[in-house]
Amino acid sequence: MSQGKSEERTLTDNLNQNVQLIQQAFFHTEDLVVESVTFGGEEGQILYIDSLVDKDKVMEFIIRPLKSSKVKNALEALQVSEDKQTGTVHTLVSELLSGSCAFLLEGQETAILASVPVEEKRAIKEPDSEHIISGPHDGFGESMVTNMMLLRKRIKAPSFKMKKYVFGELTDTNVALMYIDEVIDQKVLHHIEEKLDGVHLQDLQTSTGLLEVIQDNTHSPFPQALSTERPDRAASYLLEGKAVLIVDGTPEVLVLPTTFFAFYQSVDDYSMHWLVGSFFRIIRLISFLIAVTLPAMYIAIVSFHPEILPLGLLYSIRTSIEYVPFPPILEALLMQFILEILKEAAIRLPSPIAQTIGIVGGLVIGTAVVEAGLVSNTMIVIIGLTAIASFAAPFNQMAVISRLLGFVSMIAAFLFGLFGIAIILMAIIIHLCKLESFGEPYFAPLAPLRSNEMGDFILRKPNKNGTSPN
Amino acid sequence: MKNGRLLTKLQIYLMIIQAQLGLGMLSLPNILEKQVNQDAWISVLVASVLVQMTLVIYWLLLKRFPGCSYHELTQIITGPFLGKTINIVNYAGYMIIGTYTMILLVQLVNDWLLPFTPVWAIALLIIVLSMYLVVQDYAVFARYLVVLSVVLIPVFLLIIIALFQIPLEPRNLRPVGGEGVLSIIRASEGALFAVLGFEILLFIGPYVHMKNSKLLRTFSLANATIALLYIVVVVLCIMVFSPDVLKQVREPVLYMIRSLSFKAVDRIDLLFVFIWLSPMTASIMIYLLIASKSLMGEGKSFQTTVLLSGVIIYIATIFSSYSEEALQLYGQILKYVIYTVVFFFPTMLLLLSYLLKKKKVNT
Amino acid sequence: MIKSMFLFLSLMLLTGCWDQENLSDRRLINGISFDLSDDDPNLIQGGVRALNIKSQGGGSIEVKDELLTSEEPTIGEIGHEIKKNLPGRLDVTKTFIIFIGDELAKEGIDPLLETFYRGNLGYMPSKAAIVKGKAIDILSINEEDSPIAFRVLNGIRAAESNTLIPELNLFTIWNKIGDERIDTVLPLLEKTNDKPEVAGLALFDQDKYTGKNLDTEQSTLLLIMRDDLGYIADVFIPYEQNPEKKYRLSIMGLKRELDTKVSKDDSITSTLRLKVKTELNANPLGGSDLKSMAAQAEKVMTKRMEEVVAILQEAHSDPLGIGMDVATKYPEEWKRINWESEYKNVEIQLDVKVDIEKTGGLF
C-alpha cells in the first residue's frame, strides 16, 4: 500500500489536485475509474475501483440522485446505507479498496464515501470434506458475512457476540471472533483475545495461517483448533462455550479451544440414537489406534517377536514373505508411499479420472506387486486396513496426522520392536497430556480426568439438558 | 497457583495406584516365596499395613502444613541449614531408588523383549522419555498417571483368564500361617519394594485442596486396592506354581501368563510386558520427579535439575548394568535408603513438628 | 529441538537394530525328539523337524518338513550341532511337541526340558510325550510330508478330550516334576503301522520315568480318580451275566474327595470317595435293571481302580497327590516321614458310587 508520504496527506480544496493525489496513491492503476458529475452547479468527481463496486448501484444510488438532487448537501442526496466523510488520503484509499465509491467536490476538503461493494454470492452447499449422513446439509462459504449469518440464524441469544479484527498488512483480511458471552469461560476468552491482539501478519489467506501464529505449541503435530466447514458443528461448539474464528475468504472456520476427542466426534452422533452414536465414536477412536499402531505392530511382530503369532498364522505369514526380498519396514514404507501418491493424484483429478486411477492403482498395482514378489500379501492387507482406518476420522487434519504418527511408530518398531512402539505410544500420550489448546488441556476429559464431562466423551449419553411435560 | 492444577479425588486415587504399580509386581511372588513359602500373601498384607501407617504419617504432615511441598516443610521444621541437608539426602535417596528401578527395568526388557540390544540404547530411550514428561512438572505428570490407569484393564482380564485356564492347586496355600509370625513380618520387607512409589504424596501438598478426612480416605482406598491386587496375584502364583518352581523363576507373573495360549495370540507374556512397560517407566519418572522436587521447587531451576538428574541416572545405570558387584552393592544400600528416606525422615519430621510446635503460618 | 531430534534419530538408525531378524531367516522347528544314543549311552540323540518351504514357481509355495539329527552329550550341544547344518537360525518358539524315548526318560526328563524353561524362547503350551522304543521313529514318520507334528498333536488333543490322557503342557509338567509331593504322568506313544498311536500313560517318579505304564482304559480310571476329565469320558463295564460283552457309561459329573489321615504311629490311610454320575450310552444286550447295572459298574470300577492304585504304588508314582495331601494337612509329620519308602505302605481305600442318571433316547 502507498505508505510513507501519503499517510499524512490530506485533501485540499482543489478538485483536480485531489484526484491526482488519489491516482498517485494507486500508482496510476487503470481500473481506478474517475467520472465527472455536476452537483448543485459545482463540479465533482466520482472515483471507484472498477472490479470492486457494483456499477448498477453506482448508477442508481449515487450518480442519478446526485444529478437530479435538489438538496444542497451531498450527503443527504446519496441513497446508500453506509456513507461517511473523510479528509485523509489514507482512509480514502483503504475504503476504495474495500468497495467504496468516493465523491469529491470542488472546494471541499473532505470526500464522501459510499459503500457499494459488488457481492459475489456462492450458493450455500454442503462441504465436500465433511459429509454426514443425517443432519443439516448447509456449509460455510467464502464470505465472512454469510458465514456469520449462518451462525446467527442458529443461535439467537443476544449474548452471542462478535469481535472484529483486521490482519495482514497487504491483505487487510477481516477476521471475526464470535462467542456466546454467558457460556464461554472468561479465562479462555481472555487468553484468546490476548493472542489475537499480539498478531502481526504480512498477509493472511487461510485460517490455518492464522492458527499457526496463535496456537500455543507450533511444533506439535496435533491441530490445536478444530477447523470445520459445517455451521451446525460450529454452532454446537459455540453452545458448549467455545469461541469461533471466521477468516474472510475461507470457508474453514476455527473452533477454539478444542480437545483431541473433539476430532473424533461427528455431528451425526447427535442426530442418531445415542447407542448408535456411541458405537461409531468407539469405532473411530479404535481406528485412530489402528492407524497409528497396526503397521508398526506387524513390523515388530514379524521381525522381532514372531512367537506371538499362533502357529497357523505364523506359517501362513512365513510362507507369504518367503520370497519377498525386502525387510518388512521397507515393504510397509513402499506401500504407504504408493498409497499416499495415489491419494494425492486422485484428489487433483476430476472425479471420473480419479476413479480410474483408484482402480488402476489400487487393484492392478496391488495384485501385480504381490505377484511380482515385491510385497507380501499380508502387508497389503495391513496397509489397506491402516489407510481405511485413518480415513475414518471425521476430520481430514487428524487423518493425516494419524498416518504420519504411523510412520514414526513404524520406524520405532523397526528399531526396537514392541519396546519401541511402547515408547512411541507413551511419548504420544505424554505429549497429548502436556498439550494445551488456548490454555485448556488438549486431552481432556481424560487428562485431567473430569468425570462430569465423561457423559459426552467416548459415549454419547442421551440428551438430558431439558425437560418435557411428562 | 493456577486453579486448573488442583487434583480431584479420583485423580489422586488413580495416581497413587499407578505410582505403586510397576516392576515390583512381576517378581513379588518369587521374592516372598523364597522366604515364607505358602504364606507369601500374608506378608503382602503386612506390608500394606505398614504402608498404611506411613500414609497416615504423610497425611498428618500434609494436614499440618497445607499447601506445602515436602522440600519446603523440611526447612520450616528444622531450619534452613538442616532442612537443606535433609533435602539433599532425600535427593540422593530417591535417585538411588530410581536408578535401581531403572537397572531392573532395562534388565527386564533385555530378558524378555530385546536380548541383544545394548543397555545404553534401551536406557537412553527410557530416560529421554522420562525427562520429557518430568520437565512438564506435577500437573502434567498427574494427568499422565491417570491416563495410564487404562493398563489396569488388561491386568484384570489376564488374572481372570488365568483363573480359568491354568490348573490351580489350592492345597499349595496350606498350611496357612505355618511359617510363623516373625518370619512373615520379616519377609514383608521384600514386599515393600513392590509397593513403593507412594512417596509422591509428600509432594502433593501444593496441588490439593480438599477436606483432610477425604484425603486420608482416598489414600487408604488406593492403598487397599493395591494390596488387594497384589494379594490376588501372589495367591494366584502360589496356586499355579509348585513351591520349588516358584523359587526358581525370576518373574513368576510373566511365566504364568506365558503358559497361556489362545487361538489368535500366543505368548501373551510379551504383549503383557509391552503393556506393563508404561507403569514400569512411570516408577522411574516418579523418582526422577520427586528427586528433582526435593531440591528445587518449580520453574526453570527445576527443569535444569530434572535434566541433570536424568543424565546422572542414565550414567549410573549404564555403569552398574555392566558390573554385577555394583548391582549387588545397590541392592544392599537400597534397603537402608528406603528405610531412611521413605519411613524415617517423614516420621522424624512429624515428631519434630509436634515437639517444636511448628505449623504452617497463615496461607 | 528439531536438530537434536534429528541427531537422536540418526544415532538410533545408524547404530542399527540389534534384535531385528527377518522372519524368513528363521527355521521354524515343529517337533523335537530325544533318545539315548545306540552307540554310546552317555550321548543323547536329538532330532528336529524343521519347516522347509519350497517354491513351486508361479507364486505357489509348498510347505514341507526336513529332519535333522545329531548326537551329543547335552541338549545345548545338540542344538549347536544342528545349527551348523541348517541355514538360518533355529527357532524353537513354535516347537509344539517334544518326544522322549523311554530309555532316556528313565534317566530323568528335567535336564532335557530345562532349557525350554530357562530361555525366553521356549514354548510353554507345547506337549511332551514318552515314546515306546525310539522317539526318532515317530518324529521321522512321513519325513517329507507336511508338518508332522500337526498330526500327532491332533491325536494328543483328541486323546485329551476323550480323557485318555490328562491335559498337559510343558508348564504343568514342570510344576509337577519339581514337586516331591505329587508326580506327573505323560502320554505314551507307540508307532504302529507307521502311525503314531496313544498307548496309555507313562508313570513318573519326580522327573524319572518308572518304566511302568497304564493302558488307555486304566488311564481313564486314573483320570477319574484325579477328577481330571476331558470333554468326554467313557468307561466300559462287562455285563454281570455275560462278561464278554460290555456296556458303555459316559461320565457326566464327578465328585471327588480325598481324605488322608496320619495316625500317631505315622501310618497313613487315604480314602478316596468318588461319586460318579453317568449316562448309559450303549447297551448292546439291552439290560434294563439300571440299579444292578450301576452296582456292577461300582464293583468293576472299584476293582479296576484298585489295580491301578497297586500299579501306582509299585511304580512309586503318586499322580493322585496323596503326598500333597499329607504335606498340607500334616506338615509336621510330613517333615518326619520318609515319603520315598512310606508311599508303598499307604493304605488307599476306594469308595466309588455310580449313578446311572440318563439312558439316552431309549429306556
What is the helix tally of chain B? 14
Total strand count of chain B, please? 0
Radius of gyration of chain C: 25 Å
Task: Name the overall outline of chain C.
Answer: globular
* Percentage of residues assigned to helices of chain C: 25-40%
Tell me which oligomeric state these chains represent. Answer: heterotrimer
Residue share in helix of chain B: over 70%
Per DSSP, what share of the residues of chain B sits in E-state strands of 2 or more residues?
under 5%
Largest sheet of chain C: 9 strands, mixed
| Structural class by helix and strand composition of chain C | alpha/beta
- Tally of individual helices of chain C: 12
Instruction: Calculate the terminal CA-CA distance of chain B, rounded to whole Å.
Output: 12 Å
- Rough shape of chain B? globular
Query: What is the N-to-C succession of helices and strands of chain C?
Result: HEEEHEEHHEHHHEEEHEEEHHHHE
Q: Low-confidence segments of chain B, ≥5 residues, pLDDT <50?
A: none
Q: Give the integer mean of the pLDDT values of chain B.
A: 86
Number of strands of chain C: 13
Membrane topology (chain A): Multi-pass membrane protein
Keywords (chain A): Membrane, Transmembrane, Transmembrane helix
GO cellular component, one term (chain A): plasma membrane
GO biological process, one term (chain A): spore germination
Give a topology summary.
The complex is a heterotrimer of chains A (470), B (363) and C (363).
Chain A: H1 5-8, H2 15-25, E1 32-39, E2 42-49, H3 55-68, H4 74-77, E3 83-86, H5 89-97, E4 100-105, E5 111-115, H6 144-154, E6 160-167, E7 173-180, H7 186-197, H8 207-214, E8 226-228, H9 231-239, E9 243-247, E10 253-256, H10 268-271, H11 274-303, H12 311-320, H13 328-348, H14 351-371, H15 377-391, H16 396-434, E11 436-437, E12 440-441
Antiparallel strand pairs in A: 1-2, 2-4, 3-5, 4-5, 6-7, 7-9, 8-10, 9-10, 11-12
Chain B: H1 9-20, H2 23-36, H3 40-64, H4 70-112, H5 119-134, H6 138-148, H7 152-165, H8 181-195, H9 212-240, H10 243-248, H11 252-258, H12 268-295, H13 299-321, H14 324-355
Chain C: H1 2-15, E1 26-36, E2 44-57, E3 60-72, H2 75-84, E4 89-91, E5 97-101, H3 102-105, H4 110-118, E6 127-131, H5 135-139, H6 148-161, H7 170-177, E7 185-192, E8 195-205, E9 208-214, H8 216-226, E10 234-238, E11 246-262, E12 268-282, H9 290-315, H10 322-329, H11 331-336, H12 339-342, E13 347-358
Parallel strand pairs in C: 1-4, 1-5, 5-6, 6-7, 12-13
Antiparallel strand pairs in C: 1-2, 2-3, 7-8, 8-9, 10-11, 11-12
Helix pairs in contact in C: 4-7, 8-9
